[in-house]
Amino acid sequence: MRILAIETSCDETGISILETRTTAEGISRGAHIKVLANELLTQSSIHASYGGVFPTIARREHAKSIVPLIAHALTKANLHRPLKKARVLLPKEFRALEKIFHKEPELFATFQKELLALKIPKIDAIAVTAGPGLEPALWVGINTAQALGVLWNIPVIPVNHMEGHIVASLLEPTKTKTSATSYHIVPIYYPALALLISGGHTELVLIPRKGMYKILGQTRDDAVGEAFDKVARMLGLTYPGGPEISKLAEKAPHTTVPRFPLPRPMLKSGDFDFSFAGLKTAVLYTLKNIINPTEEDKACIAKEFEDSATEVLVTKTLAAAKKYHVGEIILGGGVTANKKIRDTFQSTIAKELPNIKLFIPNRDLSTDNGLMIGIAGLLRTKTSKNIRADGTLRLAKK
Ligand code: KG4
Ligand code: ZN
């Protein structure tokens, strides 16, 4: 089975082409998945001047890059075969595509120009992020996926982006005879607990068994990644702020008492909810109270902010792990790229819950990518003819 996956939920256009010789069941038992292509185009420099992602601009940029990126991925996968004469669509096919792209005439034009000129590649299904995310951005991926489904006469599988982040954490590179990258999924034992931390989400999710989710807690206001991005902006750093905050925090002098103490919001709330808006405001007031903050002052604030967010995330996750007697903790989402958060989870779990297995995604699979959507698609396999973008798609009801 070969699958082409599309990710456009935020500001990364991700296309991957994966191959496996087995079924979804085989994959969850650890079979190999070969990566034929994994292409990523980030828009972050375009959004940087706005200090965050602008949905209509994200949509425009995805629409500009998605078809060339698909063509590029097909070339990488050795599936790009130009025809001597471009294919002519049947009236039925043309009507179906026209309907799909009725709001995107330019994308329709590029789609026809590039993809009708190619032989139908040996691909069995398309996987696409259906949500959660920015709806205008999601639609570009969904429309392109559905159009490819018509053009190549193959099914389309809707994928939940957050499930993608969970599976990204379970991937382990496999050694193969060839130089091709390949992964397998490390089987997990249930119940497991996932902490999903990204630009739009902060959620603690219990996974009682495969594919079943129960939301134990979530943020009541800003997501942790969003707080990183907003605090970075206050400190004069560029978007995306997460990596910039980490870099600045490393420059802070080592002290036992923080120069500018910040709160640990909801640390002792007794539930599994989070709140990061207050922490962000505390940074704002701290900065207002310093006349001409030096680079070192800013580094101290960045470090204290990172320490606060880390302490809350680690403490609540460990409390949930104890309460629900889980054997495994899975971290997922862009914020897992943060070194402080990765290291603190590792050291605290080793000390306090040494029997628990911790899964953290490889750094290059922490932030959004097409590969995780392809793997989630291979595992889900449920197809749909009428996928709709759902900005607030949930893994489960709370
Ligand atoms: O999962 P992701 O790529 O996109 C969403 O689904 O939202 O996560 C993006 C978020 C951004 O808020 C970004 O600042 C944050 O992940 N991020 C980080 C780091 N790298 C990315 N946050 C803290 N430290 C990092 N090193
Ligand atoms: Zn994400």
TrEMBL record:
Cofactor note: Binds 1 Fe(2+) ion per subunit.
Domain of life: Bacteria
Domain named Gcp-like: residues: 34-80, 117-374
Keyword Transferase: yes
Chief location: cytoplasm
Cofactors, names only: Fe(2+)
Annotated GO CC locations: cytoplasm
Binding-site residues, Fe cation: H161, H165, D368
GO biological process assignments: tRNA threonylcarbamoyladenosine modification
Gene Ontology molecular function terms on file: iron ion binding; tRNA N(6)-L-threonylcarbamoyladenine synthase activity
Protein name as annotated: tRNA N6-adenosine threonylcarbamoyltransferase
